Amino acid sequence: MFSHLPQLNQVRGFEAAARLGSFKAAGEELNLSPTAISHQISNLEEKLGVLLFERKTRTVILTHEGSQLAEAVYQAFQRLSATIEEISFAKSVLRVSTTTSFASMWLVPNLAGFQKQYPEVQVEIKTTEDLIDIDRDRGIDLAIRYGCDKEKNKGATKLVTEDFRAYATEAYLASHENLEEATFIETRWKNNSLPLVSWSKWLEAFHPNTSVSNIISFDQEHHAIQAALANQGLVLASSVLAEMAIQQNWLKSLDRRYSMPGFTYYLLVSPHSENLYKSIAFKKWILEALGALA
Hints:
Layout: H1 8-20, H2 23-30, H3 34-48, E1 53-55, E2 60-62, H4 64-87, E3 92-98, H5 100-117, E4 121-127, E5 142-147, E6 157-168, H6 170-175, E7 184-187, H7 199-206, E8 215-218, H8 221-229, E9 234-238, H9 243-247, E10 252-253, E11 260-269, H10 277-291
Parallel strand pairs: 3-4, 3-5, 7-8, 7-9
Antiparallel strand pairs: 1-2, 5-11, 6-9, 6-10, 6-11
Helix pairs in contact: 1-2, 1-3, 1-4, 2-3
């Protein structure tokens, strides 16, 4: 019945090359050499009697027939993956990409809630400050992004918008009622496209007559929050990332009336995973969990 179909390894090689636009990248994903991928696709083209790619010097481009086949293969693989996951008793592995600060200060502390609801799903967290291409990277099921650029997050689901407030330990606040004697802790983003949220702006808006000289900065927000937890000063931090420390009474807000607008967290789901149970479950959970902060 299916004797006319090509070998599965040829189809896998073709799908990876079509998605990544490169025989080399496809080989890296499948642990094969670019030559092996090229041979697989040449054999597939010979069987089908059509060219699937136009070979360029540094890239490959799908032909019309190649685009048709790529769409069909994508749909078939997605349905196959969903069915295997549905009938399998093995744990599904959900790979989530996010920033180091969000992972350490919010996702990891709250992940037990997801595992309690969905013990059959195993979550792997991959942290990076770089923008990954979730449409091409098959190693990621979901990405949690952070920022204010709506265009870069087109098609994403909005999770929560933070604000920035001043926090410190209760002991530090008690011993530094005079703000001019305090140490001020802030974050200087690695991502230069993000507008700076600084103590100078906060003081200008809420304490214009206060003069301070001791400001220290970190390039990771979770480091800044950890410094405040260690009783080293007042930190200007995200309400989302400080949530656990506030709940546990480890940090106190200097003044709830004074806050600066922050950025928005977005959830992007890989087109290869969007219909899978594990992705649907995680999306439902995180929307509910972060919705409580809105």
